[in-house]
Specification:
mainly alpha; 434 Repressor (Amino-terminal Domain); 2 domains; 7 helices; 56% helix; globular
């Protein structure tokens, strides 16, 4: 591998690691601690100055909650195919310990609806929106007068 392309690979991988760390809302220190590596080493990785070993890649994947396969492919300079990313997202939702079953089901349904609408064929015309209002106001119904409205007569 040519030194220039290796540098680009390291930088691209470092940018990916940094973006995943930021998405996970982890500081550099927190991510390094979770991956059991030093802060300076993680900084070197993120700045494209070092490419970690497979062992460190696995630890980083766990710390950043991304698939080890995705991180390995990125480290090798192979961008994951879109087909491979879809199951990764669904798997992440299914296995997230912070979610209960109802939340998992809801997130998977939302994801499916977004993916289904975003992958329509490019030549297909946009679907017209319905001009009917979604909700209609309830019709006013005549009701019998309340006891306050009725004239009360005393039959004594």
């Amino acid at each position: 591998m040519h030194a220039e392309s290796r540098g680009q690979l390291y930088e691209a991988f470092g940018e990916y690691v940094r973006s995943q760390r930021q998405l996970a809302r982890l500081s550099l220190r927190q991510a390094a601690e979770l991956a059991r590596i030093s802060n300076p080493y993680l900084s070197q990785i993120e700045h494209g100055l070092a490419l970690p070993s497979v062992t460190v890649l696995r630890a980083l994947a766990d710390a950043l909650e991304v698939s080890t396969d995705t991180l390995l492919l990125r480290a090798a300079g192979v961008a994951p195919k879109e087909e491979r990313q879809v199951p990764v997202t669904e798997d992440a939702i299914r296995h997230d310990p912070r979610l209960d079953n109802a939340q998992r089901h809801a997130l998977l349904a939302v994801l499916a609806s977004f993916v289904a609408t975003s992958h329509s064929p490019p030549d297909s015309p946009p679907q017209p929106r319905s001009t009917k209002p979604r909700r209609t106001k309830p019709e006013k119904t005549k009701h019998s007068p309340s006891t306050k409205d009725r004239e009360v007569t005393d039959h004594a």
